[in-house]
Structures are given as structure tokens and as C-alpha cells.
Amino acid sequence: MIYELRIYRTLPGRLPNLLARFQNTTLALWEKHGIQQAGFWTTLVGESAYDLTYMLKWNSLAERETKWAAFASDPEWLAKRAESEKDGPINANVSNQLLVPTAFSSVK
Predict the structure, then answer these.
(1) Number of domains forming the structure of the chain
(2) Got the DSSP string for 28-85?
(3) What's this model's pTM, rounded to 2 decimal places?
(4) What pLDDT sits at residue 41?
(5) What CATH number does the domain containing 82 carry?
């Protein structure tokens, strides 16, 4: 199993917009494309209260490449994303890492 750690740093005041987009649009589209989430978090204490951190689960890099490309080019996603940003961009930046559990991890 491969886990993808993604951190979205929103622009000030825009975190509620990002949370709404995930809850109302993105999760259903991920389900359509077979993308599995492992969890979502906002920052209580840390570098930025503007962050949304989440993880995705993948069986392989090939699965990630295929499913993420299909999602990213889905016309419904492109339209909903544009609609959610009609008042301006939501994110200041996005970072991601692909992680592999260690042999002693509680997550496999």
C-alpha cells in the first residue's frame, strides 16, 4: 500500500470554501473514480491554521497515475472546481508526498 500525503494551504478566509468543495463535490467524484481517502485533518496547533491535510490510499503507483489522471481530467471536476473558484483562488499552494509504510507501522 502507498499513502499520499497532501497538504493544501488555503488563502486567508478560504478554508471553509475548500472544506465545502471536498464535502460537496470532490469526495463523490473520487468515489466515481475509485480513489480511497485515508483521512482528513485541519490544523489545531501548528504552522498554519489555513491548512487542510489529507491522505489517500493507493495499491500501486500505476493505480495512482491512472485514477488521478482520470479524476483530474473529469469534465464535472473541472467545472465544479472552476465554479468553486469564481471569487478567486482557494489555495496558496499544495504539497504532496508518496509514502510507504515501514515494516513496523500499524498501517499497512
Answers:
(1) 1
(2) HHHHHHT-EEEEEEE-SSSS-TTEEEEEEEES-HHHHHHHHHHHHT-HHHHHHHHHHT
(3) 0.92
(4) 98
(5) 3.30.70.100
